Amino acid sequence: MIRFDHVHKRFPDGTVAVADFSLEVPSHQVGVLLGSSGCGKTTLLRMVNRMVDPTSGAVWIDDVKATDLDPVALRRRIGYVMQSAGLLPHRTVADNVATVPLLEGADRRTAHRRAHELLELVGLDAGSLARRYPSQLSGGQRQRVGVARALASDPNILLMDEPFGAVDPVVRRDLQHELLRIQSELGKTIVFVTHDVDEAFLLGDEILVLRTGAEIAQSGTAEQIMAHPADDFVAEFIGGARRRLHTEDRDGVLAVVDADGRLTGYAEDWAG
Ligand SMILES: Nc1ncnc2c1ncn2[C@@H]1O[C@H](COP(=O)(O)OP(=O)(O)OP(=O)(O)O)[C@@H](O)[C@H]1O
């Protein structure tokens, strides 16, 4: 469980990135922070692994305050995936994935065996890719390696900051579905940052639509937010995604279906 308890962040130059934010992401669930550039998503995410400490308020990981934990140890036990994948360019794919286990004293052979397993888990052919360098991979493959590396220490928590933002829409869809598959297998507690409404609705158990200062405009499931946007700001923000929905007859019931054919609810629930 991750709990943000009235966190506030003011940077030294006076910028208030987060005004007053509270949220609980239950264990094994995906919480999505959705909002446009600069609204404070990354700042919130980085409070979990102490790359940023709140000015006031606290982030709790289970029953422990993040600020009571050693930042280095914390970062090793929390997976972190960034938009750029953040791989080390002069290390092979296998070495990149094995970085944390090696730092924690695993022997090389065990760490590499685990790296191979993880590469397969994220849908890569370890046999042909493990010895390559990051520059010899496609953008989508690099992001998969980034996910494998984040999973290497078998963390309970995964932080994902626009992890699929730099790849084309088709690859992005593949990666999103791969993440759903991995999540159904591993059940991590995930905080996922995005400004893409479709991505948020596909992946999130709970979605928070944020305004500047990480103010929560609305929180809820994709179905709740789409059916009843809290105000004009939310309605406008999710407008495109809403329009991409259509209805279909499913077993005699009128179902609301997204562009991928995913059932998002039933028409009768949407009345009003
Ligand atoms: N180290 C810093 N010093 C001063 N201001 C900062 C710092 N880091 C972030 N900010 C500011 O805090 C606000 C929130 O930034 P943050 O990176 O959290 O937003 P974001 O929603 O993740 O944006 P993006 O989607 O563009 O990454 C912005 O106004 C940003 O300029």
TrEMBL record:
SMART domains: AAA (SM00382). Pfam families: ABC_tran (PF00005). GO terms for molecular function: ABC-type quaternary ammonium compound transporting activity; ATP binding; ATP hydrolysis activity. Residues 2-238 form the ABC transporter domain. The lineage of its organism: Bacteria, Bacillati, Actinomycetota, Actinomycetes, Propionibacteriales. Keywords: ATP-binding, Nucleotide-binding, Transport. It comes from Raineyella fluvialis. This is ABC-type quaternary amine transporter. Its EC number is 7.6.2.9.
